[in-house]
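Reviewers of the previous submission asked for a worked example of the structure-prediction workflow described in the proposal, so we include one complete record here. The input consisted solely of the amino acid sequence. No template or homolog information was supplied to the procedure at any stage.
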Amino acid sequence: MEKKITITVEPVAGSFNLFVIILNGKAVKITEGSKAEYAGDLPEGDITIRTRASGMGQAKYKVTIDLPGEDRDVTANHKLDRGYDEQEFKIKNS
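From that input alone, the workflow returned the following structure tokens.
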């Protein structure tokens, strides 16, 4: 059975006009500031997840990475710096 992954990027406070989820170099979800969610099979090998957010000032948002059945889930809160932020998460998947 394939392992699954769910990645969510959602606003917490403030105004956003873009959320992007990038999995291993490929944009898998782009929204115009509304909640972005990607659910699919966990790729084999180590993976890199990048998130990008754009909006007004220092708006706040949350990134959640859920690996069902595993204790490696991630929840991270971030805020924009002058209207933009980009984060990178690496997961060892052996």
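The first strand starts at residue 4 and ends at 13. We consider this example representative of the routine output the project will generate in years two and three.
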